[in-house]
Amino acid sequence: MLFHVRMNVRIPHDLPSEETAEIIAREKAYSQELQRSGKWRHIWRIAGEYANYSVLDVNDNAELHEILSGLPLFKFMDIEVTPLLRHPSAIRDDDT
Ligand SMILES: O=C(O)C[C@H]1C=CC(=O)O1
Questions:
Q1: Where are the alpha helices (DSSP H) in 1-96?
Q2: In the chain, is it the N or the C terminus that has fewer CB atoms within a 10 Å radius of its CB?
Q3: Nearest atom within ligand 1 for CA of residue 51
Q4: What CATH number labels 2-84?
Q5: Is pTM beyond 0.80 here?
Q6: ipTM for the whole predicted complex goes beyond 0.90
C-alpha cells in the first residue's frame, strides 16, 4: 500500500544542540535504512520549509503507523498521511 506523507518538523529552539544533532543523525540512519529496504520510496525536501514529502510502500496502516511513530523526530513532527492508489491513466509499470 502506498501512502503520501507530509512531515513538518518543529524542533524546540531550546533543545540543546548536541541532543538535536544526535536525534537528526538517528533520523537520517533510520530513514536511509527504510529507503534501502524499499519501504520508504521517495523523500523530497519542501523548498523553504523544514518539511518533506515522502512516499512509503508498506503492508498496511499498522506498519505505516509503526514506521512513523518510530521516527526519532516523531515527537517534533506534525504528520499528514494520504492513501494512494494507481491512477487509471498511469503508464509506468513501476508505480503501483
Ligand atoms: O529532514 C526531514 O525532513 C525530517 C526527517 C525525515 C527523514 C529524515 O532523514 O529527516
A1: 17-37, 61-69
A2: C
A3: 3
A4: 3.30.70.1060
A5: yes
A6: yes
